[in-house]
Amino acid sequence: MKEKSIDPAVQHLVEKNAQQGLDTVWSRSDSQKPRCGYGEQGLCCQLCYMGPCRINPRGKSPQKGVCGASAEVIVARNFARMIAGGAAAHSDHGREVAKILLLAAKAPDSGYAIKDVNKLQKVATALGIEVKDRKKEDIAAEVAERALENFGQQEGEVQFTRLAPPTRQALWQELNIVPRGIDREIVEMMHRTAMGVDQDHRNIMLQGARTALADGWGGSMIATELQDILFGTPSPLRGQVNLGVLSKDKVNIVVHGHEPVLSEMLVLASQDKELLKMAKSQGAKGINLAGICCTANEILLRHGLPIAGNVLQQELAISTGAVEAMIVDVQCIMPSLPEISKCYHTKLITTSSKAKIENAKNYEFSEKNSLQTAKDIVREAIMNFSRREKVDIPPEKMDLVAGFSHEAIIYMLGGAFRGSYVPLNDNVINGRIKGVAGVVGCCNPKVTHDQCHVNLVEELIANNILVVQTGCSAIACAKAGFLVPESAEKHAGQGLAEVCQAVGIPPVLHSGSCVDNSRILIALSEMVKIGGLGNDISELPVAGAAPEWMSEKAIAIGQYFVASGVFTIFGVGLPVSGSEKFCQHIFKEFEDIFGGMWAAEPDPGKMASRIIDHIDKKREKLGIHKAKKRVLYDMAMRRELDT
Ligand code: SF4
Ligand code: MSK
Question: Of the residues 64, 112, 475, 483, which has the maximum number of CB atoms within 10 A of its CB?
Answer without folding.
Answer: 475
